[in-house]
Structure formats: structure tokens, C-alpha cells
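Weekly modeling sync, notes
Attendees: S.R. (lead), two postdocs, one rotation student

Agenda item 3: backlog of single-chain predictions. S.R. asked that every request posted to the team notebook include the full sequence so nobody has to chase files. The rotation student volunteered to paste the first one in as an example of the format we agreed on. Action items at the bottom.

Example entry:
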Amino acid sequence: PSALPLHILQSPNLNILPPTDITSQTALAEAFESAKKKFDTVQCCVALASLDLSVLQHHTEDGLRGISVEQWRRTFAVNVEGTFLTAREWLRGIGSLTSTEAEKKRNLGLIIVGSESGRFGERANADYAAGKSAVQVGLLQSLKGDVVRVCEMAR
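Predicted structure, as returned to the notebook:
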């Protein structure tokens, strides 16, 4: 937050939450509740989960052979499950809006950040690539139909 320009930091529309464990349903619910108390319903949510451990030595030397199952699970917990939980909390928030309230909101949107690794794969970084693929293909395509059913004004 301190790297942001002062005029942005002083904006009444900015809500910088403390670091939140996006693999924790409770922590995410609390973060969304904190944002709701300050701003009302979260209108625009950016789901940017990105645990990339490719800098670890075993990645570059051994590739997939060197990745432990614990690391694979941790990467998926953050990148896939964390994105799912974030999307779900946002959907729950906009789902509580009446149609009249939703019409008054602007830019009801969920932005999910993927990676070219999720499309093309990445040598020595299979956990990250597989997780990003799950998010930007399976999860995103599934959410596409759910979002408008929850709230017609959302994207």
C-alpha cells in the first residue's frame, strides 16, 4: 500500500484490506464483510491468486519430478481453491441484491486473472500451469453461466 501514490491512498473509494488467507473461507468472508461495511456490496472484484514457486531450485533442475505432492496441493489450494472461494464470496454478495438495487449498481464484475502458462503449460512449473488452466478454463467457463443467473447486471 505505501507504494501507491498519496492521492490514491487518500481516496474515499479505496479499501485496502489486511493480507487475507484466500484459502480460508472464514478469512475471506470477514474480508468481504469488512469491505461491505465500508462500501456496501463489493461491485468489482479482482481474483488474482498467484502462488508461483518456479524460482525454487528443484523446479529448474528436476521439473515435475521434483515437485512434492504437498507443494502441488498448496499451489492448487491458493490458485484454484482461493479463486473459487473469492468468486463464491463475491457471488454471495451480489446475490443478496434486489433487482432494483442491482440496477443502481455500476460495473458489477468479477475479474479473474489467468496466465499464458495455463494455456500453453510451462516446463518445470506444472503445478502453477495446471492450476491456472483450471481457473481460466474450467472455473471461468462454469462461472460465466452462473453469474448472470445470480444477478442479471453482473459480468
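Discussion: group reviewed the output briefly. The chain has a mean pLDDT of 87.
Action items: rotation student to repeat for the remaining queue; S.R. to check formatting next week.
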